[in-house]
Amino acid sequence: MGNIVSLPVVGHGDHAFDNTTLNLLLPMHVQLDQDGMIVHAGPTFAKLLAFEPAVVGKYMFDYIRFSYPKNIISNQSMATFFGMPLTAQIKAQSDFDLKAVAVAMPGNTGILINFAFGTSLKEAVSHWHLNSKDFSAADPTAEMLYVIEVQSVLLEASRNLNDRLNGQREEAEEKAYTDPLTDLSNRRALNRYIKRLHRRRVPTDFAVFLIDLDHFKLVNDTLGHAAGDQVLQKVAEILLNETRPTDIVVRTGGDEFVLVLDNTKDVSPLEAIAKRIIRKIENYVLWEGQNCHVGASIGIARAHTKDNRSIDFHLQAADEALYNSKKNGRGTFRFVG
Amino acid sequence: MLGMINRGLQSYICDVHGVDIWEEICEQSKLPFYSFEYMLTYDDATTEALLSSFGALTHRKRDEILEDFGTYMVSDNSLNAMHRLLKFGGSSYVEFLHSLNFVYDRAKMAVPDLDIPTMELVENNPNQFILYTRFRKRGFGPTLLGLLRALANDYDTLVSITHSRRILKHVDEDIFTINLLREKRHANNISELVYD
Prior knowledge:
Shape of chain A: rod-shaped
Radius of gyration of chain B: 18 Å
Oligomer: heterodimer
Order of helices and strands of chain A: HEEHEHEEEHHHEHHEEHEEEHE
Number of helices of chain B: 8
Largest sheet of chain B: 4 strands, antiparallel
Mean pLDDT of chain B: 89
Order of helices and strands of chain B: HHHHHHEEHEEH
Low-confidence stretches of chain B: 187-196
Structural class of chain A: alpha+beta
Mean pLDDT of chain A: 89
Strand content of chain B: 15-25%
Number of helices of chain A: 10
Radius of gyration of chain A: 41 Å
Low-confidence stretches of chain A: 1-7
Number of strands of chain A: 13
Distance between the termini of chain A: 105 Å
Strand content of chain A: 15-25%
Shape of chain B: globular
Helix content of chain A: 25-40%
């Protein structure tokens, strides 16, 4: 224990508190004389100014800056704000915000200021290595620290979990709308595409191509499923190359594909696309160097979003047209109607 | 129960034994994943499966593993919130022991569905304390033993701790008798040096 400095007593007569009591009740308080010199500091306040070997006798306003209200730079200017909430910083450690309240000492012998950590509590506790004994026993600092520490661990954990779940959700969604063999869209994606098309504010013409491969079963039976799969992948590539990013290319199952071409008013470009698809499939589908002799038949339904028909309606119409092209010797296309 | 204990075991095993061992344990325990989430709820049996796989793999007893885990949990590490919170309990080991009386309520305030033992400290004399803990999960006393020993070390205090376990109807009661052999005076308490 250090030297006992002769200290004033707060209050007078029977109502006096000695400094030992004040240290217990207000460990972060400081008492100033009429000139603003420190005459006593609570043990925790003393820790904050620990860079000074002795705090007593120092001019407090040299060490503490009051940030709100402004211009509290002396005892006199502080007197206006007795009992009001103040914010302050230690000049040498301006990162930490302090809350404070000041009162006059009995008989106007000076000022007593009690401090507390505000929002910088957690950082302050770790910076000055404080523990529960540095706070009043009737103070909720320990409880606050539990909440702060636990919340920050959990917030971090839940942020990580959310990121991971979101990644998985995106992946699952991607899978749910994709045909795994060809990476084309699947039937579910087609429904979503058509719904979106109908929701559009500007009405639009569109065309539905139903494409069925000719002689595909023969490839599967004679060259095996691996050959069949590769044929399907090559067809997928051809179809993607013949369409725009705003269109959709769907494998609806087996050797059946659906294209929906957006914003297609005229017939001739549709004919040109159908012809190119048929030619490319006939020419380019190869398996280990040999031509698989696969062809394509196409049925085309032309539609308008104003009709507000379901995709099933268009597919059924396109299926009739497809039947007609198959009947006409395959390797060709027909429009509905 | 919440994934905190499982997640803690995960950190402990990964840090001390490496991620390969951890993944092997997960596979042996038939888990469909390698990582626990703090705030998700898992079956109590999962923890037991992890502990027995880990024990079999490293030829260690369950109690031994749990005591080690308790030590690990409060290891001095600036990133360790638990270490910070327990150390906030006081500037000496005795003050820390007294603060254990409040840990349960404080932790429950922060996370209401957290699963931790209730704790009650009785001071027999200034050098002997008895800590009674009760926990719904059975057989976790050694974790607390590891924690109490690690913090004694952290406070530079020499202690001997005996641990006994009572199996009650709904909970385990663990009784720790803590004898202080030598307590280091904390010398850097500035307030004591300068002020009365």
